[in-house]
Design a protein that fits this description.
mainly alpha, elongated, about 0% strand, 4 helices
Length: about 160
C-alpha cells in the first residue's frame, strides 16, 4: 500500500467508526435510556434486543483492522491519530461491555433468575458511567487529532 492509500484507509476507518458504529451505539443507548425512565417503569423492556445491539456494535468495532496501516518514522501526526484511534476503540469496547453487564443484570432481576442488590447495581452503573466518561475523553482527543490530520494547514485554502 502506498502512503496515500494508507492515509485514506485510516481516515475511512475512523469515519466508519463514527458513522456506522458510534451512531448505532447512540441509538441503542437512547432506547436503553428511554426504557429506564420512570414513565416506562411498568412497560416490558427488551433486554435481549439491547444486548444484541450492543454486542453488534462491539463486534463491528473489534473487526476493524489497522494492522496494514504503517506509520513512517517521524510522522507524529499520523502516529498520534492511529494511537488515539486504538485507545478510543478500546474505550468504546469497555463501554459496550459495561452496558451489556448492566443489561444482563437488569434482565436477570426482571426474570427473577438472579437477585441483584442495589449495591451490585450501583457498582455496575458506576462502571458504565466511568466507561462513558473515558470514551468521551478519548473521542475528544480523537476528534482533535483527526481534524489536525485531515485539515489543510492553510486556513485560507477555501478562498
Amino acid at each position: 500500500m502506498t502512503a496515500k492509500e494508507t492515509d485514506r484507509k485510516l481516515v475511512e476507518l475512523i469515519e466508519k467508526f463514527y458513522v456506522d458504529i458510534v451512531d448505532d451505539f447512540k441509538e441503542a443507548e437512547l432506547v436503553i435510556i428511554n426504557e429506564s425512565k420512570f414513565s416506562s417503569m411498568f412497560k416490558h423492556k427488551d433486554y435481549d434486543r439491547n444486548i444484541k445491539k450492543l454486542r453488534s456494535c462491539k463486534k463491528k468495532c473489534i473487526v476493524m483492522s489497522t494492522d496494514d496501516i504503517k506509520v513512517a518514522e517521524g510522522d507524529k501526526l499520523k502516529a498520534n491519530l492511529l494511537n488515539n484511534f486504538e485507545r478510543t476503540r478500546f474505550a468504546f469496547n469497555n463501554l459496550c461491555d459495561a452496558y451489556i453487564q448492566l443489561q444482563l443484570s437488569l434482565k436477570n432481576k426482571a426474570e427473577g433468575t438472579k437477585k441483584v442488590s442495589y449495591k451490585e447495581y450501583r457498582e455496575i452503573y458506576d462502571r458504565v458511567r466511568t466507561a462513558k466518561e473515558n470514551l468521551n475523553i478519548q473521542l475528544k482527543d480523537l476528534d482533535i487529532d483527526y481534524t489536525d490530520y485531515t485539515v489543510d494547514d492553510d486556513p485560507y485554502n477555501f478562498l
